[in-house]
Amino acid sequence: MAVLHKLQRRLVKESDKTRMTGQLTDAQERIILHELDALEGFYDRWWRTESSQVHKFVQVVQKWRPDVSERVIVDTITRMW
Prior knowledge:
The chain is mainly α. The protein has 4 helices and no strands. The chain has one domain (2-80).
């Protein structure tokens, strides 16, 4: 959940520089969280360092927000910790 809030703030900043929409809607957030709930171990602390888990997170976010680049998502995750 914290990652999505951080991503939301990052999208607002990045939208000034790119063609991205500067908002992650509540509906998109709920859908993304629902899909992340299905990922085994997502809420475990270890998932952040596992590249496969990060890749899955990027896939889920880009499924609902294709305009958000992988770089922005990965940077958001790595800057949190």
